[in-house]
Design goal:
Number of helices of chain B: 8
Number of helices of chain A: 5
Largest sheet of chain A: 5 strands, antiparallel
Order of helices and strands of chain A: HEEEEEHHEHEH
Number of strands of chain B: 2
Distance between the termini of chain A: 78 Å
Helix content of chain A: 25-40%
Largest interface: A-B, 36 and 40 residues
Strand content of chain A: 15-25%
Number of domains of chain A: 1
Strand order of the largest sheet of chain B: 1-2
Number of strands of chain A: 7
Structural class of chain B: mainly alpha
Strand order of the largest sheet of chain A: 1-2-3-4-5
Radius of gyration of chain A: 24 Å
Structural class of chain A: alpha+beta
Oligomer: heterodimer
Shape of chain B: globular
Shape of chain A: extended
Helix content of chain B: 55-70%
Number of domains of chain B: 1
């Protein structure tokens, strides 16, 4: 009885669990480095995208208000003068999960570029925050017509409109439909962006995430200035 | 054992969603685009077939009262494998399917087939059962996704269909998914009812 009721089921359960764990550890060993590489690659492309032409310094991590904050310092030499800029990771809850973005700002608080690294918003609505405005249609592809691609890498239209806005004042969310380059001037004047149609929550999440990230960046810079009073700053 | 019948039943007569009424959650959630639907089908079928193989091969040593924890352990293992593989090699797919990859663990088709079929039948026929069920699940998913992507996003496979036309965004959201699935269920029931009458 003891053998049948206790020992055998225990052995079977243990064996199944062991086999599963063993198999998983092997899969993890193969995929683990690949996953880490992907994350790093993504971060590097995002950094280069938001701080074009800058030499990016070391990654810095601090804790602000009990939350981890990651930022980078960068420099660009133009002749003798060097311009400084910063990049930071912004995180804010969207409609279906956190929206993570990389933000590049110069010393005056003007946005040089943003790049949304990860999001799980609704396809067709919030997920359009990473959509590249496509010129080609399915028929073009089927007919083999080569789509006219722009110069180099295209920035998704939603992210493009952040370029040039200042973070010293609030970013206004306006409802003007999809962003096109002819709306740039009037939006810059109002320091605003055009919300994604049907995805106000996603839009707000990105904007507020960027804003609170800037606040944290300022505090992080203050703190690091305090720590090294004789520093370059 | 009629192998062909066991394979075929999942596609039409015992279609997991339209006849048995299982797995509505992933069906509604990932049918927003065709590529999502295809990848979901691949991922779920992979898990379904492999868990069917393993469960049917250990079925004789597993005590009856312990079967559910053991089945779930096996299923969760394969789901984790899919999760890791997609994360490493197809990060775009991993990103767009998101939480629905780990949720394959609780996909009722998989546990349902384990309980109803693989735990009572041999390995070979369990593979065929899993394959058929996977195809049936995928067909429903893809048909729904084609309808929703065309109507809701004016796109197919991610490419715009009619430039400049505003799509019916409701089709992308949950209500559109329910309406479309309801229409499919109605169609399926109507066809089957007519067949029965003859």
């Amino acid at each position: 009885m003891i053998v049948k009721d206790i020992i055998k089921p225990t052995v079977v359960c243990t064996a199944v669990a062991l086999a599963c764990v063993y198999a998983l550890s092997h899969v993890q060993k193969i995929t683990g480095p690949e996953i880490i590489k992907r994350i790093k690659e993504k971060q590097d492309t995002a950094l280069n995208l938001v701080l074009p032409g800058f030499t990016i310094g070391e990654k810095r991590e601090t804790t602000i208000d009990g939350k981890e904050f990651i930022y980078w310092e960068a420099e660009k030499k133009e002749g003798i003068a060097a311009t400084r800029a910063y990049a930071f990771l912004a995180k804010s809850p969207g409609y279906a999960g956190d929206v993570d973005s990389m933000v590049g700002v110069d010393e005056k608080g003007t946005i040089l570029g943003i790049s949304i690294i990860s999001q799980t918003e609704t396809p067709g609505l919030g997920a359009r925050c990473v959509e590249v405005a496509g010129q080609e249609t399915l028929w073009d592809i089927l007919k083999g017509r080569t789509p006219h691609t722009g110069t180099g890498e295209q920035v998704p239209f939603f992210q493009e409109q952040f370029k040039g806005l200042t973070l010293n004042s609030k970013i206004n969310i306006l409802k003007l439909g999809d962003w096109t380059s002819d709306k740039r001037e009037s939006l810059l004047e109002k320091n605003g962006i055009s919300a994604l149609t049907g995805a106000t929550i996603t839009t707000t999440a990105v904007v507020r995430g960027v804003e609170s990230g800037m606040m944290r960046l300022n505090r992080a810079l203050e703190e690091s200035a305090k720590e090294q009073p004789g520093g370059a700053r | 054992m009629n192998y062909w019948k066991e394979f075929r039943k999942g596609i039409w007569e015992r279609n997991p969603q339209l006849v048995v009424g299982l797995a509505f959650c992933p069906t509604l959630a990932v049918s927003t685009s065709v590529s999502n639907a295809l990848w979901m089908t691949l991922a779920a079928s992979f898990v379904l077939i492999w868990s069917n193989i393993l469960i049917s091969s250990v079925r004789k040593v597993v005590a009856k009262h312990l079967r559910i924890p053991i089945f779930i352990t096996i299923i969760a293992t394969f789901v984790t494998v899919v999760d890791l593989l997609l994360n490493a090699y197809r990060p775009d797919v991993y990103k767009s399917l998101g939480i629905f990859i780990p949720l394959i663990v609780v996909n009722c088709i998989i546990l349902g087939r384990a309980e109803e079929f693989a735990s009572k039948n041999g390995v070979l026929v369990s593979i065929l059962d899993g394959l058929g069920m996977g195809i049936g699940f995928g067909l429903t998913l893809v048909v729904l996704a084609v309808a929703r992507e065309i109507l809701g996003a004016n796109k197919l496979f991610g490419y715009t269909l009619i430039p400049g036309m505003k799509p019916a965004a409701a089709m992308i959201m949950a209500p559109g998914a329910f309406f479309a699935l309801a229409l499919m269920l109605w169609g399926m029931n109507a066809i089957n009812a007519r067949k029965k009458r003859k």
